[in-house]
Specification:
alpha/beta; Rossmann fold; 7-stranded mixed sheet; 3-stranded mixed sheet; 4 helices; 12 strands; 22% strand
């Protein structure tokens, strides 16, 4: 990766991380409730029976209420579990979900692990992001887990990134391995940005 792209990504991530840390608990709670409603509507619109989602950290736009509600509705939700080799294992969310700190300090499910290819059967991927631009390019947090996952899937289903409204940008720095997303879900809108790859 050229140094200027890496530097631009690092600087933007630092700015976005700081902005997230400054959000009040009230703003985070309101965002989580709105995102749960938007994801619920997206699942209905796409007729999703099986999907992947992530367990949000305290500063990320909240997804946990949505995951709980989706499981109660009978949707099969796969949650990512990080591996040292840069791939993701998957675990099925359950109503009594046990959560522990994962490899990079992220919240991850405790339970039976399914291999990396388990995600190939889902109807929708909902993934984290630091920011997304209007062409669908996603800026992740720099470890490449989701870029590798998306890039390796044949017949990839729609991929939606969850961000705060201020993180939908005109442009993000990009490199050759970066994978675009189909759309973005924020507390105030669900936008389709790029065609699904199926």
């Amino acid at each position: 990766m050229p140094d200027e792209i890496a530097d631009a990504k690092r600087a933007l991530r630092a700015e976005l991380r700081e902005r997230r840390q400054l959000l009040s608990q009230h703003a985070r709670d309101a965002a989580a409730a709105a995102i749960a409603q938007r994801l619920d509507a997206l699942v209905d619109e796409l007729g999703v029976r099986s999907m992947s989602c992530f367990l949000s950290t305290t500063t990320e736009p909240g997804t946990r209420d949505f995951v709980d509600a989706a499981v109660r509705r009978g949707i099969r939700v796969l949650l990512p579990v990080t591996r040292a080799d840069g791939l993701l294992d998957w675990s099925v969310a359950t109503p009594d979900l046990d959560i522990a700190e994962g490899l990079h300090g992220l919240p991850e499910p405790v339970g039976e692990l399914l291999g990396p290819i388990a995600v190939n059967d889902v109807d929708l991927l909902v993934i984290p992001a630091a920011a997304v631009d209007r062409s669908g390019m996603r800026l992740g947090w720099g470890r490449g887990y989701f870029d590798k996952t998306i890039g390796s899937m044949e017949g990839c289903p729609p991929v939606y990134a969850v961000v705060y409204d201020s993180e939908l940008l005109d442009e993000v720095p990009r490199d050759v391995h970066d994978q675009p997303v189909t759309g973005v879900v924020t507390p105030t809108q669900t936008l389709r940005l790029a065609p699904a790859r199926r």
